[in-house]
Amino acid sequence: MNQLQAADAIRLKQYMQKAVDRSKYFIGYPISQDFDYRELYPLLGLPLNNVGDPQVESTYDLNSRSIEREVVDFFTELFNAPVKNSWGYVTNGGSEGNLYGLYVARELYPNAVVYYSEATHYSVQKNIHLLNMPSIVIRCQSNGEMDYEDLNQVMQLHRHQPAIIIANIGTTMMEAKDSVPAIKAILHNCAIKNHYIHCDGALAGTYLALLDDANDFDFSHGADSIAISGHKFIGSPIPCGVVIVKKNYRDRIGKTIPYIGTIDTTITGSRNGHSPVFLWHAIKRMGREGLKQRAINSLAMAEYAVQQLNSIGCNAWKNENAITVVFSAPSKEFCQKWQLATEGDWTHMICMPGITKEKVDEFLNDLMEESRLKTAMAEA
Ligand SMILES: *Cc1c(COP(=O)(O)O)cnc(C)c1O
After folding, report:
1. CATH 3.40.50.300 correct for 39-283
2. CB 178 near ligand 1, within 6 Å
3. What pLDDT, on the 0 to 100 scale, is given for residue 121?
4. Domain spans of the chain?
5. Nearest ligand 1 atom, CA 98
6. What CA–CA distance (Å, rounded) separates 79 from 223?
7. Tell me, what's the pLDDT at 170?
8. 54 Cα to the center of ligand 1, angstroms
């Protein structure tokens, strides 16, 4: 095979060095970096493809379906999905899982109104647009959680229509959790029998389900579908996710496709065959207990970060059971350096697994340096 030309080899080397450098200042997005999948390296030489339904074997046998099923089984159990009536697959990420949940919900209730809070991830609005569904945005409380009074009032006006509700299990900016029990109480109050609750657990769904007392959103609490991102809490070099739905809902979707010799029940055609193996590797290596400890460590790190930020006079807080620390946004340059997303006056740092105390301290020192500079400049 041809080698890269010298100039291209240099270009590649520079890019690769830049990626490594930028990974050192990465505290603003909910992405774990502490993975090691080198054992799986030989698989990068194979064109794995899980096209079609993971439960139905395909003529395209160079796949990781059997591994994918074990990953789905792990989440089915984690989210207390009905054993005989659940189904799922490994997606390209939380956004696709949200699209799938909404798609299934629309097939079930074509005349429904979708309700979602203003703090909801942008993928939901886009997916609603793609699916051409009527929707209403609900106000938020100041901590980013849905305003249930607003939901109740708006729903009262639409009692004659089925309701599809997106419950955020950790909003993107403040990691607020919408309460599935509160939403169910409102549905009951409005006497809306035809309803569907999709939980967007992309950010926090996995670890909240692992903790004792933090899970009021799974199938046993009334969820009809749950989407998570695999590259966030678990960690993966390739974005991925998992969606779990009730099987009788999925049955409304798939068509048998002779060309692939399986059922086309997913959103995309070709599907990543490598990402299920990454997730499987992490789940097997850490186990449920290991993953739970990982969550507990992140929560402790977030507590530490709040205390330290407050101790240097930075206005910082976090929601209950959250690993996202919200604080007043520093300068644009600082946010760029540390890859901090901002919204209005707020920004956040996220204590994902792999964010060590040393990393938090380095971040804090840098922030103190920045505020010293700012004060000095203001005085000059
Ligand atoms: C990250 C995120 C998503 C989107 O997930 P992707 O894996 O990036 O597609 C959706 N909702 C929430 C709350 C998120 O944090």
Report:
1. no
2. no
3. 97
4. 6-36+288-367, 39-283
5. 10
6. 9
7. 98
8. 22
| CB of 93 shorter than 6 A to ligand 1 | yes
Q: Does the beta carbon of 91 sit less than 6 angstroms from any atom of ligand 1?
A: no
Q: What fold is seen in the domain 6-36+288-367?
A: Aspartate Aminotransferase, domain 1 (3.90.1150)
pLDDT at 259: 78
What are the Cα distances from residue 370, in Å, to 184, 330, 351, 373? 46, 8, 21, 5
Atom of ligand 1 nearest to the CA of 241: 7
pLDDT score recorded for residue 252: 82
Q: What token pair was written down for 65?
A: 């379906």
pLDDT at 106: 96
123 lines ligand 1 (CB under 6 A): yes
- To test the pocket of ligand 1, the residue of 229, 319, 348 to mutate (highest count of ligand atoms within 8 Å of its CB) is 229
What is the pLDDT at residue 255? 76
Please tell me the distance between residue 335's alpha carbon and the centre of ligand 1 in angstroms: 20
- Are both 6-36+288-367 and 39-283 of the same fold? no
**Does the C-beta of 155 come closer than 6 Å to ligand 1?**
no
Q: How many CB atoms lie within 10 A of CB 195?
A: 22
Residue ranges, the chain, pLDDT below 50: none
Q: Which H, E and C letters describe 189-208, residue by residue?
A: HCCCCCEEEEEECCCCHHHH
**Residue 215 beta carbon below 6 angstroms from any ligand 1 atom:** no
pLDDT for 70 equals: 98
State whether the beta carbon of 97 lies less than 6 angstroms from ligand 1: no
Of 172, 206, 272, 319, the one to substitute when testing ligand 1's pocket (max ligand atoms within 8 A of C-beta) is: 172
Distance 94 CA to ligand 1 centre (A): 5
Give residue 307's pLDDT: 97
In whole angstroms, how far apart are CA 13 and each of 18, 199, 317?
A: 9, 41, 40
